[in-house]
Every structure is written in structure tokens, then in C-alpha cells.
Write a structure and sequence with these properties.
This protein has one domain: P-loop containing nucleotide triphosphate hydrolases (Rossmann fold, 3-Layer(aba) Sandwich). About 35% of the residues lie in helices and about 10% in strands. It has 12 helices and 6 strands. The strands form 2 sheets. Strands 4-3-5-6 form a 4-stranded parallel β-sheet, sandwiched between helices. The chain binds adenosine-3'-5'-diphosphate. The site of adenosine-3'-5'-diphosphate has 21 residues, from helix 2, helix 5 and helix 11.
């Protein structure tokens, strides 16, 4: 069954939410890239909002020391889900964007190593479970109350951002075209400080020990939940139903075990298990797994 047109449309083989349009998405391939641009690229539910906050904290001293009160959403706009008519050419440098675009739809200028891309992956069972909960409280996604049905759609790539596997495999196999840093949600969770240092290094940002400490402290799940600049709770009621969930839900590794049955886990592994092994990523399925 195809996803409802009320929520998703397909452009060049990829599912977008209807809050954007095919006409707008088509313009993005020609979107002009500046050398200093930074893109956070992810499949949904892989740690985008977390990485947005880390970048705001690293790049903007005023965000780090609390003297500036600007939401991450405004600092780091969603490239393809533009909800205002802000002139991106007027954003302060370096511009940072978040995107769920597959590698083949991003602005052409990003290839040939112009700009920088930070690509975050997460183990796909946690991605799927997070996505399932997310679709209950965000009004722009179809709510699929039956998890079995949601899982079948996810496995078939009939959800926002299409197939998880294609997204990840596509970015990894085209890594050479981009100036790109790959990180995983799980490595961020296990050792946030090392992940922050890797990002600083990739962005050529030299922060003092204290500044790094401050970034790490403010980017923990608990502190982000309390930070209105970071928790996305300023979104209007017609976009999110706050009684049904939040962007920062659990923030753990292995939550899939609380929802998936043994049979569902087997079904998942039958469809994706072998293909996942072909990816150059060592997935962490449980917080106690070795990195
Ligand atoms: P859960 O639903 O499993 O809690 P995205 O931003 O790409 O939509 O990803 C959302 C997921 O990242 C959610 O996962 C959310 O809780 C988690 N997340 C956001 N900030 C986090 C943080 N500081 N630490 C750990 N997880 C975080």
C-alpha cells in the first residue's frame, strides 16, 4: 500500500512531507553553496536535533554562555522543510543546515568537497521505534497506531525519507564526493566528549577545555530536555501534540527491545539483517555492546 498523499509525496524516488513541495525541492540542487557551509545530514530519528544543538554550542559563544536566546531551529534551518521565507543568503556565516535529503538530491555544489557534511547514523531498530513514536505526536505525519503496520512500511521504505538502508548506504558509498564526517548516535551516547572533539576538529574550531566541558554538559539528554532553545517545544500546537510525546523522548540505545516482539525482531532481521552487514558501520544494538 502506498503512503497517503495527504502526508507524503515522492520526488525522484524519495518521500517528502507535504509541508514542502516538489517545486521547492527541485530548486535545491542549484542552491548555492559557500565554502563555509555545514550540513547535518541524517535519516529521520538518528540524532539530528542533538547534533543541531552541539553545533550551535560549538559555533556560537552566545549560545554556549546563554547570552543569546535563539532556537536551534532558527539558527540551523531545515533545508528542504523551509517553513518561512527567510533569506538563507543573509544567514550569518558559517551557515548550518539540517537535512534528510539523500546524497543524490543535495545541492550540487556540496560535491567536490565544497562545504562540510556531518552524517549521523543510528541503529535502525531504535530509529524505527523512535519514528513510530514520533509519528504519533507530529501532525504532519500519518499516525499509524499499529506498530506491525508501521514496521512493514519502514521496511518497505514507505515512510518519510524512504528506505533507511538506501539513505545510509547511499551516503556511505558516495563519501568520496563530499567533505564528510560520519558519526553514530551510539558513539555520541557512549562518549559525548570524544564526539564533540571530533566535530571541533572537523570544523577547525579550537575550544578550550572549559568550553568543551560546557558544550558536553549542555548537550546531554537531560539538559537539552530543559533547554527551550534545544527541545523544539516552541513549535506551535498545530504542529505537535505535546500530550502525545516530545522530540526528546528517551534518548537511549536499545529502546527497540521494549517494543519489538521476538517475532518482529526476526522479521526485521530477515528483511534487513544481511544487507546491514554490507554497510561499513559497526552498529551498537545495546548500550552494553562494545564499540
Ligand atoms: P528517541 O525517540 O529514541 O528518544 P532526530 O533529532 O533525528 O529526530 O532524532 C530524535 C532522537 O534523538 C530521539 O530518540 C531523541 O530523544 C534523541 N535525542 C535528542 N537529543 C538527544 C541527546 N542529547 N541525547 C540522546 N538522545 C537524544
Amino acid at each position: 500500500m502506498e503512503p497517503s498523499k495527504e502526508y507524503l509525496f515522492k520526488y525522484k524516488g524519495f518521500y517528502f512531507g507535504v509541508i514542502t513541495s516538489p517545486e521547492y525541492v527541485a530548486t535545491l540542487e542549484d542552491f548555492e553553496i559557500k565554502d563555509s557551509d555545514i550540513f547535518i545530514a541524517t535519516y529521520p530519528k538518528s540524532g539530528t536535533v542533538w547534533t543541531q544543538n552541539i553545533l550551535s554550542l560549538i559555533i556560537h559563544e552566545g549560545h554556549r554562555n546563554g547570552t543569546e536566546n535563539m532556537d536551534n531551529m532558527q539558527r540551523i534551518p531545515w533545508l528542504e522543510y523551509r517553513t518561512d521565507n527567510k533569506d538563507y543568503t543573509a544567514l550569518p556565516l558559517p551557515r548550518v543546515f539540517a537535512t534528510h535529503l539523500p546524497y543524490y538530491l543535495v545541492p550540487r555544489g556540496l560535491r567536490n568537497k565544497r562545504g562540510r557534511v556531518i552524517y549521523i547514523t543510528r541503529n535502525p531498530k531504535d530509529v524505527m521505534v523512535s519514528f513510530y513514536h514520533f509519528s504519533k505526536f507530529i501532525s504532519s505525519l500519518e499516525e499509524v497506531p499499529d506498530f506491525n503496520i508501521f514496521m512493514e512500511r519502514f521496511l518497505a521504505g514507505k515512510v518519510l525519507a524512504s528506505s533507511w538502508l538506501d539513505h545510509v548506504a547511499g551516503w556511505y558509498s558516495h563519501a568520496e564526493d563530499f567533505n564528510i564526517l560520519f558519526l553514530t548516535f551510539e558513539e555520541m551516547k557512549k562518549d559525548l566528549r570524544s564526539a564533540v572533539l571530533k566535530i571541533c576538529d572537523f570544523l577547525d574550531r579550537k575550544l578550550s577545555e572549559e568550553e568543551v566541558d560546557s558544550v558536553v554538559r549542555q548537550a546531554t539528554f537531560e539538559n537539552m530536555r530543559k533547554d527551550p532553545r534545544a527541545n523544539y517545544e516552541n513549535l506551535p500546537d498545530d504542529i505537535i501534540d505535546k500530550d502525545k510525546g516530545s522530540f526528546l523522548r528517551k534518548g537511549t540505545v536499545g529502546d527497540w527491545k521494549n517494543l519489538m516482539t521476538v517475532a518482529q525482531n526476526e522479521r526485521f532481521d530477515n528483511v534487513l539483517g544481511e544487507k546491514i552487514k554490507t554497510l561499513p558501520i559497526k552498529f551498537i544494538w545495546d548500550i552494553n555492546d562494545e564499540m
